[in-house]
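Hi W.,

Here's what went into the run:
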Amino acid sequence: MRRHLVLGFGVVLSLFPFYWMVVMATNSTEEILKFPPAVTPGGELMANVSKVFTEIDFFESMLNTVLAATGATVLVLLFDSLAAFTFAKFHFPGRTVLFVLLLATMMIPPQLSAIPQFVVMAQFGWVGSLKALIIPATVNAFGIFWMRQYIAGAVHDELLEAARLDGCGFLRQYWHVGLPVVRPALGFLGIYTFISVWNDYLWPLVVLVDPDRLTLQVALGQLNRTHDTDYSMVMAGTVLAVIPLLIVFLIGARNFIADLAKGAVRG
Amino acid sequence: MRKYLPQYLAISPFFLLFGIFGLFPMVFLLYLAFHYWDGVGEMKFVGLDQFAFLVTDDTFWLSLSNTLQIWVLSTAPTLFLGLVIAFVLHSSVRFTTFYRIAYFVPSVTSLVAVAIVFGSIFSSNFGLLNAVLDWIGAAKVPWLTSELGIKVSISALIVWQWTGYNAIIYLAGLQAIPSEVFDAATVDGASRWQILWRIVIPMMRPVILFTVIASTIGGLQTFTEAQILVGEEGGPGQAGMTMVLYLYQQAFKHNDFGYGAAIGVGLFLVVLLFSVINWRLVQRGERP
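Here's what came out:
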């Protein structure tokens, strides 16, 4: 019983900011700032949401975020599974060196390259475009490493050998033998990538220079900066930006958490 | 070589894209740090001037000190509480899925959103926390308007967001320890604290190292928390000015790309130093 008391207290702390976010988003700012403040959800959500819609182009930002996250996820799944399958199941000259090189690239902190990458984007003419969010996000050494570990154990060599004897070339072995087996791993990596791109802030803040073409996080940061006294409206925007992602997470939460924990312990 | 062509093609996207968006930018960062550039006009070679300024720039050293202080203030409670929660979760049989999801959810929630919510909780004038303190008759605390308050608030946010994540990873580490070990210790009369400190922590060394390394890499790059909570100037006394925030401010707000790049090189050296320390820790663990 004492255990559940401790754990329950932790859950309250863990979930309270979400509750508070909803309380603020559903009350008027006056209700929040009066003393004592409102502590239960109110009925002002729609009013606050409509204010958000007049302040920022919410649906445009949402669309941009969905496009960037989906584009990056699809490309990551394709590139990473293909590379991981190759590293896990094929021998070719330089395999070990290239894999070590790949692991070494994980040492570079991504925030660091914001400045030079911005210059690269300027050269490509991608500043302000969603391509600047999608293409660099496909460089994902962690994904290849993680998938390789999975494929090494999950895809049996005999199966590949049989496919080879049946005349399957490299791509067909990948498509017909490799991919079906690694589907659970794709689920994890897909959710992971989608969440990372959806939540990313510094890079889109830097590279999306066109104020009419932002992601949700950047638009939300801007809303917070310019209307920092209208708590309710900002919170309504925050709720809107958080909920779609929470749904994506909760759908796969059980397996996702288990896969992540396994990867961390093994790696 | 020809017969390996499909394999090389299959792994080529990563190396190609890394070259363009990973390796080249790092080299270019160094190049840029030897120049003055406002992002529009001609680049002007200035030799070591940017670095000479960097080592005498109080704000740079302040940002380094802030980053490290926030890192310690946030990482120590995060890892300790994570371990405690994992330990309790491990001995609990019911509702574990619910607990796991509830504890994990903060780590997948948008940092911008979380920082906005925490801003409204910690706000010195209108915040929930000060309203509660006022209500119980205690003095208000200048959370986001004093130097220590800013660091505590940013750290509290990080602790809130990452404790559950680390607990889940520790839990997986705990589950990898055979249950006979716990049984034997209990039979021998070990208390729960003794089991935690004498058995669990030594056996979980690799997992703990993983979380320390992950927290170091994350902590040295703290940006969004500070930018949303106290703004681009770092708040009163620049107490929230982290290294990445300073880099961002110099390059993208003051259009001083050369100096921003020099800060980047400085940050890279700090990250490198900590990587070497972490690596030594891992190495020492592997020796028998």
